[in-house]
Amino acid sequence: MKTAMLITLNTLAALALTLNARAAAPLPSWNDTAPKRAIIAFVEQVTKEGSPDFVKPGERIATFDNDGTLWVEQPIYTQVTFAIDEVIATAPHHPEWRETEPFKSILAHDREAMERFTIQDFEKVVAVTHSGMTVQQFQEIVQKWLADARHPRFKRPYTECVYQPMIELMRYLRTNGFKTYIVTGGGQEFVRAFAEPVYGVPPEEVVGSMGKVKYDYGKDGKPELIKLPDVLLVDDKTGKPEGINMVIGRRPQCAFGNSTGDQQMLEYTGAGGGARLMMLVHHDDARREYAYGAESKIGTFSDALMAEAKKKGWVVISMKDDWKTIFPATVK
Amino acid sequence: MKTAMLITLNTLAALALTLNARAAAPLPSWNDTAPKRAIIAFVEQVTKEGSPDFVKPGERIATFDNDGTLWVEQPIYTQVTFAIDEVIATAPHHPEWRETEPFKSILAHDREAMERFTIQDFEKVVAVTHSGMTVQQFQEIVQKWLADARHPRFKRPYTECVYQPMIELMRYLRTNGFKTYIVTGGGQEFVRAFAEPVYGVPPEEVVGSMGKVKYDYGKDGKPELIKLPDVLLVDDKTGKPEGINMVIGRRPQCAFGNSTGDQQMLEYTGAGGGARLMMLVHHDDARREYAYGAESKIGTFSDALMAEAKKKGWVVISMKDDWKTIFPATVK
């Protein structure tokens, strides 16, 4: 009797989910071109019970790069802008920076010098702005910065410089039983500070470059996690499948990126059996966003990556041709 | 119209979940003593909408130690037994081990020498048995070993030397919207090899000690993740909140352990606001399992930990008094 009731209720719950999934036409900001059709065909393959490609709901994993895949990365990575702004904001507490590079150039707003910054220079900037506070304090600093900062061209918050078609894709996948992970070269705790309200992605589904943290006790004796300047994982290129293994422990069925930093994640995803979907956002829309590729320092989409995509059947999304809109229309 | 239908179906789905949760009396293997009452009171507090302690379903996190909390850790950690068996099994490929410690003592079955093994000795054993293969190959080796190995006293597979009351507790928490993470000092990939069928915990909800992995290409050109002998995280003591931050990124509302290695995880959990539940399994049942505590090298439950538990209101579970049964009755 109890069992019968449970089965009926479970069936109802499943029915409710299924009907929810079908209620609205999916992906309204996508043109009816090859990428949209590939997404819908893939989802039908893996969700259709009895299909040879069927994947159980708990095992459906999608991974998304962030910079250039979910939000704007030009003219400079948002996290770098944050770090530079933080150096300027905290400079009064660091008189020594006025005489020390790379801080000196930042404080002098010397754009030419900043364009010549090496990886080591950026590492120094990240080290001082991303350590020495608790994880919670850091995320509050990021949230406060995101609330005030505006993109130099689009004059809106960075959290509204996200790609509406990709937001719809994440939602469509979640409605179909996927967990939608972010797998970003950016800082894990930087992205966690906004991923839930902006993308609907909770902290435990954000994989990113990781710094060490140290468990310690504050002045009040309360335990806290202090961010250290040491790097634990650079979640880019081969670091992406490595980070996926650390946090997820399963191979995704689909993966979405936009640059050479995502190649290994797409390769790793594609090497599994059954239906797979690998997609690359191609920035070819100078009018509505940016057009860049092989020659760009940020978000490099090399000719070799394009050749690899063609060879392996990875779907290249043309922002110009495949997306009706780029950004969400209204502030949420 | 569509919206109205969605609301109705969502309500039905929620109703189904609620009724499912209430259908069976929870925690049947627990005596009706203080620990069971504390669990039920805690769950009611955090799940009751409108309660000041209410936590949204997606944010409900429970963390469980594994060795000594979910399964037997005496007379020796299961993973150590696995590593020793692996040394013996693979010795024919390593003639040099016959002359090199600590392998020489293992191959000579010299129990006395093995009892004197240092941490460094064990590290050498773990390094050779837990690296040099792909993550997938390693998990297949573990699964094969678990299928054949038997606990020396209970004469049943290690995966059946799990604590039935804790399995029921995990299930009860999941039914009430919690994610039940394992946070173990054992190897993350070792525990992932059996956590889903045995505990209902998927790979992405297993935090453990982590070794580095390397993304590379096999002979067939297929990408794979190779286990390296380098340690990335020792997920014990202060490493537990650090590992929780890496993989989960949220503070748990409840945490379950059994030894000094779990103290920081319980502290960190308890330092959050609202209702919290911290519990320690106390092994005081020599007849049905084992009795050990402050003097034990494995699963040390120091007097200081007991004092801390009393001071902070952590609930100590007496296996003897609070659990009706220890192990699952039948092979599943």
Structural overview:
- The structure is a homodimer of 332-residue chains.
- Chain A has helices spanning 2-23, 34-47, 78-90, 103-107, 111-115, 119-129, 135-148, 164-175, 188-199, 239-247, 263-270, 303-312, 319-322, and strands at residues 61-64, 179-187, 206-217, 223-233, 254-257, 277-282, 315-318.
- The first copy, chain A, is of the alpha/beta class and 332 residues long.
- The longest helix of chain A has 22 residues, at 2-23.
- Chain A starts with a helix and ends in a 10-residue tail after the last helix.
- The interface between A and B is large, with 51 and 51 residues.
Name a few traits of the molecule.
homodimer; 332 residues; alpha/beta; 13 helices; globular; disordered N terminus
Give a topology summary:
Two copies of one chain form a homodimer.
Chain A: H1 2-23, H2 34-47, E1 61-64, H3 78-90, H4 103-107, H5 111-115, H6 119-129, H7 135-148, H8 164-175, E2 179-187, H9 188-199, E3 206-217, E4 223-233, H10 239-247, E5 254-257, H11 263-270, E6 277-282, H12 303-312, E7 315-318, H13 319-322
Parallel strand pairs in A: 1-2, 1-5, 2-3, 5-6, 6-7
Antiparallel strand pairs in A: 3-4
